Amino acid sequence: MIWLLEGFKRFLDLSIHTVQVEVLAENNSRLFYERLRAKVVEKKDIQIDGDVLDLLVYEWKNIIEVVQT
Is the pTM of this model over 0.85? Predict the structure, then answer.
């Protein structure tokens, strides 16, 4: 988690306050983002190697809230 917080601090230095990440719905790493209060803002289907997969877009509207905890 430290690497994510350091990245968020760097974003804040650049005046970036909203961050999105994309993760496949079947990837359990999405639970990490959920624990850090990211919200799903979009769901879409993508095709990889002939398979249609569910892609989730998570967003933190204001990363200051994450950095300060």
Answer: yes
